[in-house]
């Protein structure tokens, strides 16, 4: 079946090119100037074509070879607010006089592309955070999700240091989604100890859309979306790349990533290889208390938390005046140890170290995620059709010794749980620019998932899922300073879940020959309507007010419908409910931004009412399965979420920037009248950054920052969840460039948890074992850019 | 429930706003705090049941560190559970602890003790049943004792000698459950000895202690031997450690130690069926091992300075996986 579907994808892909038309070539030319009239050597990118140019020192630019049509120009220059300009080319060249507003606030110089209408940050009605490669490198912490933690409203659920998944406004798992190049990442995201399989180095731009996102993205876009998009392609005739090497002291983590990209005659390519190895990590404790026993942490290191990662990605494509098309193949491969005491009750003998901290023993995860993604933008008359096709294969192997699970040697050996998930995705969007006041998007999304499993444990049965949705989204520029949008979406989905029978073992851990049915055949169909509306009111050039109202949905996952097995680590025996309905949310998001040249204040309160929110509830009964504690059932009832993020940035001088980011989340399960589990505690991240003036020849673009994160105690907890005390963490960083040849080398040193603070993370799986988080960590990073060919 | 949502209406014009940025900003900020005023969470019982000793006894039984001798055939199970809302279920679980980190399965008739007794209002066995709504149960009867040999044995074959973990957990009617993380579930490690597991004997004890002198080799006389029992088998593994004194009872911080702090001596011979890295040089004999010969020459135990008492821990295993472990106190002059 996989071959048939792949062939279909290929045929669609080829047929798209026949739609493309070569027509007369036009040009856009003009100048980019500051408000005071000085020319700026800004970068101008034509969004639809992915190409562009740099203006000269006087600000003059010219982009040639364009067909008539509607385009979005992204204009950026460091120290100035990014500008997005919608233009219409008819049958003659266009003259533009672009003005950029000065801004000392770094993040304002980034454009936003997550907005489906491709216009600027003030026009869209949702709250969007955007970060670039520079931010990711500056905040490198070994995983992609952890690098985003500095954004207000974003936190992570961690299992040690190599496995982490993002949380947006207190929601994670299947209630948020991650889109890589327009394709939703599908990798068993229902599991707390299932990390996000993204190479942290292979991320150029990240846009986090907070709030309901089902309209554009479908099921699971309940609380937000993380969009990973590629950086602009290099200019014609250039071949360039970089090497990044980093070392983290806490767990001797060595990371090496090599990238090369180029553009020859509109043929573009990019390749990356990343290697990352780390040892058992250190915690600021030599013992921990579990089950009333004091257990040792030898050499302050958590046994078997080492890991090994090997990732690659390869992109090739064309960039023409009719559009662009790229094909990306990437593979994430990770082998990560799980702390020996985390499965089963920690035992004296198995916490002993053999002295080799790099060994990855049992239990461990072997995860691979293969993606083949095709992105095509094609001009149809004056408008643009975007087609994203994807194939993903996620393989998750949880290796563990059978006796820990109460079974004897098995034909599967030490493979406790294997999950093989194949996902095919096809998405299309047609951006129709009606006139200068109206534009609309018609889109469809579809996916097919096939899950198989192996191993001696059972948690998730084999299933197939089909999803398809159509949406219409309209933007209306009512007045120059009032932009209104609204959209509607229809979805249909089907789950076909196969029954499963599991062998029964006797006291000697031998199979008895008997089988017990864990779940029956389940077939479920779902239909959903979702929609959203909102406005952006640009009060004046300093103040922007936004409101977004939306209704999102999520169809129950096969794990929620059919699971019947033990979640090791929390010892729970979890049972699905085949009768669960779709979950639905009604959300209101407000956003107010006040921005001056040197000041930015943003406040984003939100409130959401969830209908039929699906959650795990304790039954108070014990499981009879070996190795399990109590039975927990999936149930659904209404829930409430509310909270806010606060952002404050102030640059009193060109060199100094203060920033403050705060977040708070309140939630309540309206059935139990208790908070929902794994709610991130309130926190405030404050920082001061000093950029050194350009006085030293060999140290350009130098900076130093100091950060302090204060996290409040989380005392609002669900039944059987423990409260977690508050803590404060000090972090600092230093970076500079050394001009070697034409490409300066970038040096960065940063330190996390500098005071070696002993603290518990409320969202960490090891919190259940009373294990503190990683201790002091110093990160050394060197980036060596190179140019193989230049135009 | 967020039943009184106070949406603040901003009904001023842009022009006014420009003059009153600050006020609107303030109003906006206040929506943060006023937007939702949820009904305070009604006080709820979030407390797990309390597991404690049974009436008339000082400790929960079996106790941590309890050793059941070669002639013992069962352990008492004595504890109480209390919860003012009503007890949901109670579980007594026994499983092998000797299975340190391997994937061994012994291809023989020996059976590990594996118990999962669930006490509940619906239990089919009247000894495990209590009335619904009960707020306190006291378990102290013969019907709940756990037998591993003899006519009442729960096993289909001879028990594998060694250490076992005994856990007691409880839930209440709301689903609040005791946990190992905070020590509200009970966990004890016990030793089950059998007449067929290897026998460990030390003959030079004075007042039940070995005597050692700082800087001198420890003199240990005695033997490890296969017994004459029909189920006995050749010895396959020996592990000797000298460690800081093991505190069987309440340690500092009221916590038991599952592992002593530092090993001054740690040597293995033969191959363990259970321990992942449990192997060493060949045993000189598989029926009888003379400790004074084994602990001589390069293998002698040197007594470190700075300690008054240390523990000598000897663990021996036969080819069927039966394990005997004994701890001897070393008094240091």
Descriptive key words:
heterodimer; A: 791 residues; mainly beta; 22-stranded antiparallel barrel; five-stranded mixed beta sheet; 42 strands; B: 333 residues; 3 helices; 19 strands; disordered N terminus
Structural class of chain B: mainly beta
- Unreliable runs of chain B: 1-20, 28-41, 248-255
Q: Total strand count of chain A, please?
A: 42
Give the termini distance of chain A in whole angstroms: 46 Å
Mind summarizing the main beta sheet of chain B? 5 strands, mixed
Q: Beta-sheet strand percentage of chain B?
A: 25-35%
Shape of chain B: elongated
Mean pLDDT, all residues of chain A: 90
Largest interface pair: A-B, 70 and 76 residues
What oligomeric arrangement do these chains adopt? heterodimer
Number of helices of chain B: 3
Q: What gyration radius of chain A follows from the Cα positions, in whole Å?
A: 26 Å
Question: How many strand elements of chain B?
Answer: 19
Instruction: Give the strand order of the largest sheet of chain B, numbering strands 1, 2, ... along the chain.
Output: 2-10-9-5-6
Helix share bin of chain A: under 10%
> Spans of chain A of 5+ residues with little confidence (pLDDT < 50)?
none
């Amino acid at each position: 079946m996989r071959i048939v579907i792949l062939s279909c994808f290929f045929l669609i892909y080829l047929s798209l090119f026949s739609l493309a038309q070569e027509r007369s070539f036009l040009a856009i030319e003009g100048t980019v100037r500051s408000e005071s009239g000085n020319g700026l050597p800004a970068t101008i990118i034509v969004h639809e074509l992915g190409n562009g140019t740099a203006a000269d020192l006087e600000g003059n630019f010219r982009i040639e070879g364009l067909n008539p049509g509607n385009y979005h120009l992204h204009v950026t220059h460091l120290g100035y607010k990014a500008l997005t300009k919608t233009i219409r080319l008819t049958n003659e060249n266009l003259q533009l006089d672009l003005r950029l507003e000065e801004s000392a606030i770094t993040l304002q110089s980034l454009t936003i592309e997550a907005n489906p209408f491709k216009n600027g940050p003030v026009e869209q009605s949702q709250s969007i955070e955007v970060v670039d490669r520079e931010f990711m490198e500056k905040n490198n912490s070994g995983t992609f999700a952890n690098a985003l933690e500095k954004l207000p409203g974003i936190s992570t659920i961690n299992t040690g240091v190599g496995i982490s998944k993002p949380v947006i406004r207190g929601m994670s798992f299947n209630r948020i989604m991650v889109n890589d190049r327009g394709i939703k990442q599908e990798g068993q995201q229902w599991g707390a100890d299932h990390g996000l399989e993204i190479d942290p180095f292979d991320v150029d731009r990240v846009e986090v859309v907070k709030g309901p996102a089902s309209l554009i993205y479908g099921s699971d876009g309940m609380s937000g979306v993380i969009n990973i998009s590629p950086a602009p392609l290099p200019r014609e005739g250039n071949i360039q790349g970089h090497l990044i090497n980093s070392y983290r002291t806490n767990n001797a983590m060595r990371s090496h990533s090599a990238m090369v990209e180029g553009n020859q005659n509109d043929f573009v390519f990019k390749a990356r290889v990343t290697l990352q190895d780390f040892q058992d990590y250190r915690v600021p404790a030599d013992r921990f208390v579990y089950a009333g026993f004091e257990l040792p942490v030898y050499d302050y290191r958590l046994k078997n938390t080492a890991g090994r990662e090997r990732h690659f990605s390869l992109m090739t494509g064309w960039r023409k005046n009719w559009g662009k098309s790229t094909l990306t193949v990437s593979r994430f491969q990770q082998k990560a140890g799980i702390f020996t005491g985390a499965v089963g009750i920690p035992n004296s003998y198995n916490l002993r170290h053999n002295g080799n901290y790099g060994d990855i023993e049992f239990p461990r995860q072997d995860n691979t995620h293969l993606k083949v993604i095709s992105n095509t933008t094609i001009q149809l008359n004056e408008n643009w059709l975007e087609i994203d096709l994807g194939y993903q294969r996620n393989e998750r192997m949880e290796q563990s010794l059978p006796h820990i699970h109460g079974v004897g040697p098995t034909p599967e050996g030490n493979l406790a749980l294997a999950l093989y998930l194949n996902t095919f995705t096809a998405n299309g969007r047609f951006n129709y620019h009606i006139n200068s006041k109206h534009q609309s998007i018609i889109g469809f999304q579809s996916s097919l998932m096939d899950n198989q499993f192996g191993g001696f444990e059972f948690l998730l049965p084999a299933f197939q899922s089909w999803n398809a949705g159509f949406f219409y989204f309209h933007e209306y520029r009512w007045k120059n300073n009032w932009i209104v949008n609204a959209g509607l979406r229809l979805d249909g989905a089907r789950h076909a879940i196969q029954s499963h029978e599991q062998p029964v073992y006797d006291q000697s851990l031998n199979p008895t020959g008997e089988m017990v049915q864990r779940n029956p055949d389940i077939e479920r169909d779902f239909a959903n309507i979702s929609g959203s509306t909102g406005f952006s009111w640009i009060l004046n050039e300093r103040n922007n007010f936004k409101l977004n109202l939306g209704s999102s949905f999520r169809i129950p996952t096969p794990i929620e419908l059919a699971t019947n097995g033990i979640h090791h680590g929390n010892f729970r025996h979890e049972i699905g409910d085949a009768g669960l309905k779709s979950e639905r949310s009604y959300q209101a998001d407000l956003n107010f931004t006040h921005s001056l040249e040197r000041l930015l204040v943003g406040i984003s309160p939100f409130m959401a009412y969830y209908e039929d929110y699906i959650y795990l509830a304790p039954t108070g009964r014990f499981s009879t399965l070996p190795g399990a504690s109590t039975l927990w059932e999936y149930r659904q009832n209404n829930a409430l979420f509310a909270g806010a993020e606060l952002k404050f940035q102030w640059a009193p001088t060109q060199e100094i920037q203060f920033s403050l980011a705060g977040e708070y989340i309140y939630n309540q399960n309206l059935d139990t009248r208790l908070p929902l589990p794994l709610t991130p505690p309130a926190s405030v991240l404050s920082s001061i950054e000093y950029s050194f003036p350009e006085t030293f020849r060999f140290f350009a673009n130098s900076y130093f920052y100091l950060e302090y994160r204060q996290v409040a105690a989380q005392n609002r907890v669900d039944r059987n969840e423990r409260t977690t005390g508050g803590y404060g963490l000090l972090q600092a960083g230093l970076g500079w460039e050394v001009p070697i040849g034409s490409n300066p080398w970038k040096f960065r040193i940063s330190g996390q948890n500098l005071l070696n603070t002993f603290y518990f993370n409320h969202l960490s799986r090891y919190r259940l074992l009373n294990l503190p988080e990683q201790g002091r960590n110093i990160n050394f990073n060197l980036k060596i850019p190179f140019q193989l060919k230049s135009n | 429930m967020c039943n009184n949502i106070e949406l603040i209406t901003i009904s001023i014009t842009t022009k006014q706003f420009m003059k009153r940025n600050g006020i609107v900003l303030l109003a906006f900020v206040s929506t943060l705090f006023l937007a939702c005023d949820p009904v305070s969470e009604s006080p709820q019982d979030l407390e797990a049941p309390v597991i404690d000793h049974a009436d008339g006894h000082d400790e929960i039984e079996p106790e941590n560190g309890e050793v059941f001798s070669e002639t013992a055939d069962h352990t008492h199970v004595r504890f109480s559970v209390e919860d003012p809302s009503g007890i949901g279920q109670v579980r007594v679980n026994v499983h092998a602890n000797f299975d340190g980190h391997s994937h061994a399965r012994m291809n023989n008739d020996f059976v590990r003790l594996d118990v999962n007794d669930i006490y509940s209002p619906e239990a089919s066995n009247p000894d495990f049943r209590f009335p619904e709504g009960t707020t306190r149960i006291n378990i102290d009867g013969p019907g709940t004792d756990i037998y591993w040999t003899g006519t009442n044995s729960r096993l289909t074959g001879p028990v594998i000698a060694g250490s076992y973990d005994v856990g007691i957990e409880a839930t209440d009617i709301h689903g609040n459950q005791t946990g190992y993380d905070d020590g509200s579930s009970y966990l004890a490690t016990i030793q089950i000895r059998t007449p067929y597991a290897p026998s460990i004997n030390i003959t030079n004890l004075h007042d039940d202690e070995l005597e050692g002198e700082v800087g001198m080799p420890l003199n240990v006389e005695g033997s490890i031997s296969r017994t004459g029992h029909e189920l006995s088998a050749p010895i396959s593994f020996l592990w000797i450690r000298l460690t800081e004194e093991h505190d069987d009872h309440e340690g500092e911080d009221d916590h038991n130690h599952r592992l002593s702090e530092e090993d001054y001596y740690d040597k293995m011979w033969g191959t363990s069926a259970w321990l992942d890295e449990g192997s060493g040089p060949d045993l000189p004999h598989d029926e009888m091992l003379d400790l004074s010969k084994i602990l001589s020459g390069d293998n002698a135990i040197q007594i470190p300075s700075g300690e008054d008492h240390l523990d000598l821990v000897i663990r021996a295993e036969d080819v069927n996986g039966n394990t005997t472990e004994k701890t001897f106190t070393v008094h240091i002059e």
